[in-house]
Design goal:
This protein has about 280 residues and is of the alpha/beta class. It is built from ten helices and nine strands.
């Protein structure tokens, strides 16, 4: 995950009115204070402490060549108005930004949680399993999030599965047998366990995986669903159908909630009519 830098921007007129806020790396009121900041490739949170700083925020973003930043506002000192203006100015110079409005400055921890979720997707390393080449979605994903996406063809995936760690495979079989409420043979579980073990061995080199399920299912008559479920249960992001859009949501959701997500299909939708009762 990328480092997070939190900078407070405040007008000189209001600097003495701002309380000490934990978590801010530096408070900036003028151009001179923009010099010598250690930003690198960090994700920046710009805490808009007062009005009158939108142009200073744009100057900062341009000086440090930022592609994106999170603007955080609060109800006091014309902060939100300044954040809205800063967003418009940043858009003019090609910098992506979003505004998170806090109910109170004491809720800065909430802003940092959002920032960590955003930072978790930046420069992420993803393996697309059972995919011969990256498509336009993968290339856009790489560009937008400065990510690394590797396409691993089906033949390579099959080799990894055939040579999967037997200890991990056995652990998977025993774990699943202790949980399922239906009968399943060890042989079928071993087929899925090898998929689990092969994918499990890729974490470290990659931060998240997405597998192109159906070609493997059709060819081998084995579904990876239990393997993916177990990986996500362990807190490791694993998406099905090589779906990078879903993988994005799963990564963000894990950081925000502390729980892994899961991709589910919609099977049926039934319209329900609501009746409003108005007391006479």
């Amino acid at each position: 995950m990328r480092r997070i830098v939190v900078l407070g921007f405040v007008s000189p007129l209001h600097r003495d009115r701002i309380p000490v806020i934990k978590g801010i790396d530096k408070t900036i009121s003028n151009t001179d204070e923009l010099r010598g900041l250690s930003i690198g490739d960090a994700f920046v949170v710009a805490l808009i402490l007062s009005g009158g700083v939108s142009r200073l925020v744009r100057e900062f973003a341009e000086d440090y060549g930022l592609r994106r930043l999170l603007l955080v506002s609060h109800p006091g000192l014309n902060s939100l108005a300044s954040a809205l203006d800063a967003k418009a100015l940043l858009s003019e110079v090609g910098v992506d930004s979003g505004i998170l409005h806090l109910e109170d400055l004491s809720h800065i921890d909430h802003a940092l949680k959002i920032a960590r979720a955003i930072a978790s997707i930046l420069s992420i390393r993803v393996a697309l399993l059972g995919v011969r080449a990256k498509d336009s979605v993968a290339r856009t994903f790489e560009d937008r999030f400065e990510a690394k996406v590797d396409a691993i063809p089906m033949e390579s995936l099959e080799d990894m599965i055939n040579n999967a760690d037997e200890k991990l495979t056995a652990e998977f079989i025993n774990y699943i047998k202790g949980r399922v409420k239906f009968e399943v043979s060890d042989e079928r579980l071993r087929d899925v366990g090898r998929i689990y073990a092969a994918m499990r061995g890729l974490y470290g080199k990659y931060d998240a995986l997405a597998i192109n399920c159906f070609p493997y299912l059709i060819k081998h008559r084995v579904t990876p669903c239990l393997a993916l479920a177990r990986l996500n249960e362990e807190g490791l992001i694993a998406a099905c159908e090589a779906d990078l859009r879903a993988l994005f949501s799963m990564v963000i959701a894990r950081e925000l909630t502390g729980y892994s997500g899961w991709i589910a299909n919609t099977n049926h939708i039934e319209a329900v009519r609501s009746q409003w009762l108005i007391a006479q």
